[in-house]
Every structure is written in structure tokens, then in C-alpha cells.
Amino acid sequence: MVRSVNKLARPGSDADGLFKALADPTRRRMLGLLARRELPLKEIEEQFAISRPAIIKHLRALKACRLVVVRKIGRQTIHSLNPAPLRTVKQWLAQLETRWDDHLIKLKQQVESDL
Amino acid sequence: MKIIKKEIFMDAPPSKVWQHITDSKKIALWLMPNDFEPTVGRAFSMDCAEEGIISCAVKEMIPQKKLVYSFTSEVIKIETTVTITLVPEGTGTRLTLTHAGWDALPPSDEGIACAFEEGWGERLNSLKEQITGTVK
Q1: What is the structure's pLDDT at A108?
Q2: Cα A56 to Cα A40, B99, B135, distances in angstroms
Q3: Would you tell me which of A42, A70, B51, B80 could form a disulfide with B101, CB atoms 3.0–4.6 Å apart?
Q4: From CA B10, how far away is CA A104, in angstroms rounded?
């Protein structure tokens, strides 16, 4: 918007992958599941009516932006939620909110000076 | 997830405020360059230098009272909704702007906190069962 230099929202920033990852309903459902408890791949698969490669692709998107982290226990890969990157989203929203303030103040001045 | 909600009082009647929120040239002065057209169903875009193009569509228009449009930024590809309402107040207008639809975005921090709490509850129950040997 008019005034800001918004690093977070600039295309190509880290936030790009994060927002893309969050923009998909399947991936949001995965995050919801993982927010309850960490899960091995097999159990994630059981919750979705899509193919294994599709599941893996979604998980890859979530791992790429560190919303999901994995660790190995024996032969199992355990997936868990890492909420830290969501702070970026929160920050973005906070900035957007501030900018609405700026815009509305400008609108007020504009309307009131329009005689 | 939170809703962004803003209120501002303007010392001008709703008819005047309405012009400034529905005329493309006037919108450009306080918000962003745009190709807004005051027709329900009409798609338009706003050019936000830093965040690219914001795709919008007029959803609802009640002259001098209410304007609703969808708002989808190039970066956050989630459709959100901006609602602007005007209420006359004395000789002026109270404008309320809400920007909602963020539910579709992340599980909110609160949501995650609750889910964690729930998850911990479950885990502590199994731990308790494990320790006390209670098998249900």
C-alpha cells in the first residue's frame, strides 16, 4: 500500500512459501491434525482420501517453510508442528492493520477537506 | 482468527464519504491505484506496489450505507472480505471497516494453543494410565 516497505510481503521472501503453504485447505487440515499430536506418515495418510505421493507433496510444502518438522524413530518418520513461522503471519496481519489506520486517516482528511 | 476492525468518525455526511469510497480516482488518493467500478459482481484490482496486485470483486453495495468487496493479495492467496459501513452521526459519519476471512489462513496461535492443550491432555491421560496401570 502507499507508504510501507513490507519485507514480509514482498514476493520471493520467506513469507512467500509460508503463505503458499497455508493457502491450501488440505495442508491446513494437516496442520490441524499435527497441532493435536505428532504423527508418523502412515497415520497422516489414513486421515486423507488422497494418494500417498499427494500427501508427501503437501508435507514437503509444509516442511519447506518449517511449519512441519520431522524426526526419525526407528523406521518411522514422525511429523510434528512447528508454530514458530506463524509469527510471520501474525506480524503481516499486524502491519496490514496499521496500514488500514493510515489509509483511513488519509480518507478522513480527504473527505473533510472536500468542500 | 482475528478480524481487523477499524472505526473512524468523519465530519461529512455519508453521501460525501460514499463518493470517496466508490470513485476510482478518489479511492486512489487514500488507498491504492485501482480500476474500481461501482457495480456488484464487477472484478477490479488494486495495485499495491510492495505486495503486488490485489484482486477484488464488488460483493454488495447499499448506496451511502455499505460496501463489501473481496480482497485477495498476490502474496496471501486467500480470499478475504473488506466491509465498509457508513452510519450518520450528528452532522458527520461513522465509518467502520472490517477485514475478515482470516480463518482460512493459519490455525491461529490460540487455536494451536488449544490444540496443544488438548493434545497434552490426551498424552497426560495415557501417561497416567501407563503409570497407574489403569487400562480402560
Answers
A1: 94
A2: 12, 34, 35
A3: B80
A4: 10
* Contacting residues of B for A95, CB less than 8 Å apart: none
Q: Is it the case that residue B120 has pLDDT exceeding 60?
A: no
Which positions ≥6 away from A45 have C-beta within 8 Å?
A: A52, A55
What is the C-alpha separation between A21 and B74, in angstroms, rounded? 14
Residues A110 and B69: their CA atoms lie apart, in Å, by 21
- State the pLDDT confidence band at A13, using cuts at 50, 70 and 90: low
0.95 surpassed by pTM: no
pLDDT of residue A46: 93
Q: Which residues pair with A71 in a beta bridge?
A: A78
Chain A within 8 Å of B77 (Cβ-Cβ)? yes
CB-closest option in A19, A32, A111 to B77: A19
* Other C-beta atoms lying within 10 Å of the C-beta of residue A64: 13
Beta bridge partners of A73: A76
Q: Please tell me which of the candidates B12, B49, B111 has its beta carbon nearest to residue A112.
A: B12
